[in-house]
């Protein structure tokens, strides 16, 4: 796992960035294709609109709609066909012809501006209202200019005025973006999904790696925890088989008491593991009642005195909370204080340890502070100290006993009592645990 993990991370990372890169390339290609297709459709639609405006049928139709002008020019047929598009059509009619052509070529709803101009000296021109607004900006707009030439052959071609139909489609990029909008949204959405899956995969791998390390550490700790009592029981049983021990009731009683003590010790370890499992599954039952926090704190301190003296340690208590009555489980509350005191003693310096235990009222809570001047903890250890089976590393020397369940149990029980726990520590200086529990109404 350790050897393959970096390779897995590198391969997944390369795949993720490769996928994102090709998605960007695909979107860019799609944008260019759409822009090209849009311009081609605009050109074809504009050409057909120009052709429609110059068809003879359109000339006659438009003239029939303008009889007064036709009567003025009826004596000269060349004058009839030399009438300009600007004279034969209104702006609305030209706009309608262009719109119909746009709709025919899948450009329905696409905005446009137009102008009809001739190449005469006077430079006559008819244009839509916003034509000049977009005419100067050719970078963001599509400009198409088509000459207006009659489709009839013969003399008419020579006498028809030369005119141009200019069509501008503004903001072509916005139109293209609108067309590929859902493609972009889909790409972004699936990229986010893939990226999320990537990070979840990495986190799962890290979690599995951590669980594997914890499992190995737990097995090692459990081996060391059970090896000594099993060996002691085995020796005591062998001693009980000795004829001299059998003949001496005092010695027999001693070895029997050793077996009972070690058996009790193993049962306690098994019980701690079972309690951790029950807390994890939210199955533990709390027998809560009104108790005096100070009374149970003092009992825990008294129980720790013998072990503390063996470690050349001392403890100072300052129980100042104005109200120490809490609604808690007696056994579990005692275990909270015992576990923290036990840790302070376990992780003490060779020359000894000084523990300070202080209580005070804080609003509706009782504040319990337990501090020591022991070996302290690193920042990394503080982050993981309440995790199940986690133990601060002391190298390969198993001079500190336990499964790493104590503080995990403490945090779970405190939270079950609607309280909080916070730890502060400096490596080589000591640790400070602060507990807040609700006072009884």
Question: Can you characterise this structure?
Answer:
This protein is an alpha+beta fold. It folds into three domains: 4-179, no CATH class; 182-280, Signal transduction histidine kinase, dimerisation/phosphotransfer (DHp) domain (Helix Hairpins); 288-438, Histidine kinase-like ATPase, C-terminal domain (Heat Shock Protein 90), CATH 3.30.565.10. It has 16 helices and eleven strands. It has helices at residues 4-54, 56-64, 67-73, 77-81, 85-88, 91-104, 131-135, 155-159, 172-179, 181-240, 243-247, 249-280, 293-310, 330-346, 379-384, 406-416, and strands spanning 113-118, 125-127, 142-148, 163-169, 288-292, 314-319, 325-329, 354-362, 365-372, 420-426, 430-438. The protein is elongated and about 140 Å long. The two termini are 54 Å apart.
Summarize the structure.
Helix content is 58%, strand content 16%.
Computed CA radius of gyration, to the nearest angstrom: 45 Å
The percentage of residues in β strands lies in 15-25%
Give the strand tally.
11
Strand order of the largest sheet: 6-8-9-11-10
Put simply, the count of helices is 16
Order of helices and strands: HHHHHHEEHEHEHHHHEHEEHEEHHEE
- Poorly predicted sequence stretches spanning 5 or more consecutive residues: 69-78, 152-160, 395-400
Q: Give the % helix.
A: 55-70%
- The CA-CA distance between the termini, in Å, is 54 Å
Q: Strand pairing plus helix content: what structural class? A: alpha+beta
Shape descriptor reads: elongated
Describe the largest sheet. 5 strands, mixed
Please indicate the count of domains: 3
Average pLDDT, all residues:
79
